Amino acid sequence: MLDQALLLDRTSNAVHDRWRYKALALQILGQPTEALASIDRALELDSNNAEAWLIKSETLPALGRLTEALDACAS
């Protein structure tokens, strides 16, 4: 259902924010793989979003991807 809501308004400038919020929720729920997929979608829509890069850098260590987490911090 959340995915359907994310797709309702594709014209909004805030669509990337919705994916970012979904990533945060999934991260809190202990679902890092799903969180990473959502944050990657947010970054596809706005690659300059500092909060999205921060979320990515916080999610990657849970998947054992420390080098990528450091790279995300630098982005």
Automatic annotation (TrEMBL):
Q: Which domain of life is it from?
A: Bacteria
Write down the InterPro entries for this protein, in alphabetical order: TPR-like_helical_dom_sf, TPR_rpt
Gene3D superfamilies, A to Z: Tetratricopeptide repeat domain
Q: Name one Pfam family in it.
A: TPR_14
Q: Which residues form a coiled coil?
A: none
- What this protein is called in its record is Tetratricopeptide repeat protein
What organism is the protein native to? Ktedonobacter robiniae
